[in-house]
Design a protein that fits this description.
Blueprint: H1 7-22, H2 30-47, H3 52-62, H4 67-76, H5 83-94, H6 98-110, H7 123-140, H8 146-158, H9 166-180, H10 185-198, H11 205-218, H12 230-233, H13 246-249
Helix pairs in contact: 1-4, 2-3, 5-6, 5-7, 6-7, 6-8, 7-8, 7-9, 8-9, 9-10, 10-11
């Protein structure tokens, strides 16, 4: 959907968003209430779609409306609990827009924001699992690009120290391995092994065997110089001077 907002209007919207975000701790404000109402309407529109793909396409059209609020919150926000922000983080993940999603995730994790009550998972768990699932879907359809791959690695990094179920960590590690094995098999193998460490049933044993063999076969064989027989390798020790044979010296007793 084309954004027909004029530059001047966008500037006013940005300034208003920044002002409202700065003052949000004073209580609910008009701009935020309007965004909440907009989100409620957008959720109703999404519920009317039965197709997952149709929902994704609709989210792709809708998220731009919230960009100024997101940018203002990340730059001037005070870390207040904000279900609007975390919901939009999920929408960005769903549409494969991993960069903005992880910008929100880093802010949310820094300020210990929670997911809305409908979600039983922690925010870091949601980020790791949803990024892994969406990346897998994009990779399966051959639609993932290098920037998205880089952001999947970023998701692995920023959630590395977070507490989450082992199966979720294994899922993200496996996905990192699958996305990088063609260009960096050593790094991919490390991630597959990490996935196996956290979940024996993560489905990476075959990948580990394949990569271990690939890396072993790729190692150049050490070229050894032909080994000479031991008798030829050692220099013959210099013989000490021996007295001449009596037969050659003659008889010295005469």
């Amino acid at each position: 959907m084309t954004d027909k907002t004029t530059p001047a209007a966008r500037h006013r919207q940005k300034a208003l968003s920044q002002k409202e975000v700065t003052n949000i701790t004073a209580g609910p404000n008009q701009a935020y209430r309007m965004l909440q109402l907009k989100l409620r309407e957008d959720k109703q529109a999404l519920k009317s779609k039965q197709s997952i793909q149709a929902k994704i396409e609709l989210k792709r059209e809708l998220v731009g409306h919230y960009d100024e609020w997101i940018n203002a919150t990340l730059s001037a926000g005070k870390g207040d609990q904000d279900n609007l922000l975390t919901t939009l983080m999920l929408w960005h993940i769903d549409i494969g827009n991993f960069g903005p999603a992880l910008d929100i995730a880093e802010y949310a994790m820094k300020h210990d924001l929670k997911m809305p009550d409908a979600h039983q998972r922690t925010l870091a768990t949601v980020v790791a699992e949803e990024i892994a699932d969406t990346a897998k879907k994009l990779a399966t359809s051959n639609e993932i690009n290098s920037e998205q791959v880089a952001q999947v690695l970023r998701a692995s990094t920023i959630t590395a120290d977070a507490d989450m179920p082992d199966q979720v960590r294994a899922k993200l590690s496996r996905q990192v391995g699958e996305l990088t094995e063609a260009v960096n098999p050593v790094f991919a193998l490390d991630n597959f092994q990490n996935a196996l460490k956290f979940d024996e049933n993560s489905g990476v044993k075959g990948s580990i065997k394949r990569l271990e063999k690939q890396l072993k076969d790729a190692q150049p064989e050490t070229q050894l110089e032909p080994v000479a027989p031991q008798s030829e390798q050692l220099e013959q020790p210099e013989q000490p001077n021996q007295p001449d044979s009596p037969e050659l010296l003659g008889d010295n007793n005469s």
